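# step 3/5: fold
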Amino acid sequence: MKNFTFLLIALAVCLFCRQQAFTQVKTKIFDNGIPASMSRVSYQKNEVHTPAPANLETLKSSRGESESSAEYKNRFAVPVAVDYDLLQMAKQSAGDGGVIYSLKLVADKALNLSLAFSEFELSPNAVLSIATDRELTDSITAKENNPRNIWATRIYQGNFVYLTLMVPRNEANQNRIKINQVNFGFIPIGGEFYGNPGASAPCNINVLCAQGNGWENERTSVALIVSGGAASCTGTLVMNTCGTNVPYLLTANHCLDANVSNWVFQFQTWSSTCVPNGTYRQDLQFNGCQLRANNAASDFALVQLNQVPQANSGITYSGWDRNANAATSGTSIHHPRGDLMKISTFNQAATAVSWMGGAANHWRVSFDQGIVQHGSSGSALYDQNHRLVGQLHGNQNNVCGSTDNNCWCTTQIPSIGEYGRFDISWAGGGTNATRLSNWLDPNNLGFTTTNTTNISNLASPTGIYKQIAGPDYICNTASYSIQNLPPGFSVAWQVLQGTTVVSSSVTGNTLNLTKTGDGFIEIDAVITNNGGCTTAPSQFASKKLIVGLGAVGGFWLHGQNFDYTATGPGNYYTVCPNEYLWFEPYYGTAGNPASAHIWTFSGSGTLLSSLNGPTISAQAPSALRTGFNITYQYLSACGGWSNIANGGATTMDCAGGEEPYSTRAINSADVKVYPNPSSNNYVLIRLATAVKSGNASLFDVSGRQLLTENFSGLQKALTTSKLAGGTYVLRLILDGQVTTTKVVIQK
């Protein structure tokens, strides 16, 4: 099977039609090779080799024995930086109504490999598959897109993978896939294609053996964690007292690295039989998380998955007990050395011990059956009531090397596990970032226990209704708040204004404004999740307001073929003779503030509309260098008339021919700007439809232009590394159409 090549035409086409049914990435394992029935078409592929790092052979010979013997994190690979653009390097071929990109990536001399993507964006109907001869990940779709545009793969056995991207022809230019890291395995992980034997010691016990009977609910909470493609640990989804589907996962503090956003989580990764350690199976993969709380004292880390598991996934959340009672018996469920899920059991009461001195903040258990090893770190300790009471740190007195399986089954028997105590972690270091309590009991309900629960029986988390409540006008005073703000969220307010027209104060989460002048302002709300009962991340909301009489800022001109540079609303324009024109007032940052309108029209040309409507239309004079003047003011809802704006148009020689040009605003739904807010030193602009020409410009709130770039096609990246943090205005002029939006830069 080593030369096995394939293209999952039938499956991929099916996914084109059904991808909305999936939120999890699924990988299938075939002990005897991927069936020939799944290889509909052989295809030509480019092959890219990544040279092995200089220290790979040294690491292989040391077999990772330099790793800490006390803490049970499992380091198995070394990362190598690369710069591979899949769409540029892959072989392209025609598929059924689309384009197929195929590439074989080889990590020379690696025992296993995984990939990290620095740019990852799939179009709505694209399907990416990654495979070896026996492992097939076939459900990677646009649902994996994320604001940071990064992604990472699971670990694949062997030193190569096939990457296949199938894209409908009309979406061929909407995908970005760049690989920036290849991780070279220097010790086995998981065994050969998760077959028999596994990489872990043979005295481990598969979770589907008799010892796992009665623990079926708990095992579906457990995940194999791959950290940065180079190390593995174990984690467990845990309940919150709200009874909502919020994917908090508990693991060990010493498993943390600098970037949890690239962690990969594999659930239901177990052998389908007790013996052998193999046969066909399928697991669920989730990518990325956010660190919520951690503390070294009891060695806990709580992260929140970026993706919420589906109700029909079969995944559960483990119950817990935060009382200070020692378990009299129980189990630990874990992934030693990245192997298939194992279970260890104990029937003697746990004892409270310190870790390397200090407070007795760990539980020590002696296992009667099964063991724990490197890679088991972070796994749950369950008591006799099937409730989580700690997570694995390691064994201070361990004498076995991380890969010395014989030692683990002889010298290190009975196996000892030392677990950071859940009851100690509950209060932790006394802050939200160092304790479990405000995340798992955000409403302070005071529960001391919860029970393991299937996702299908949990309530959907409440999202934020992203709307600022309050009046559109400030005639004297007004107050603003976020509607339906869930418990555990806070709001930070910002007032943007060209001139000082309001004074402000904040009471709790409410913004209070008092009129001090006339004009327009925008208020922004940064809504931060401090540990509520919802999965909603920190969000941003804004509202444009009219203060007092407001102000007229100028005119937009809409017409057939006028000739001028559209840098914003102007007052006077050059137009072609006999051209039909439409003038629209520009009110600055707010919407239409008028309850009544008054226009005047004087000079040459023909007025075609009433002088009392929100806009006027006219026909330009037939003679050259002649024109008309207009004025406009409106009646404010607060009472009183606005300032008077002056404008008009003058004809010019259009004999050379003018191209049709319109400044009517394009649909903002056709324009996507992300990340926004951005902390990545760039913002990416994506359009629903490609444009021939235009430009994109950023202005500060005072109207000063800071950068501008030409724009064509579907997307444009603007580099913001030289800009200070703050709020900016993005203006797009695309094929003669104009739109503006707000961009927030975070530094």
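# step 4/5: annotate
DSSP finds seven helices and 52 strands in the chain.
# step 5/5: archive (pending)
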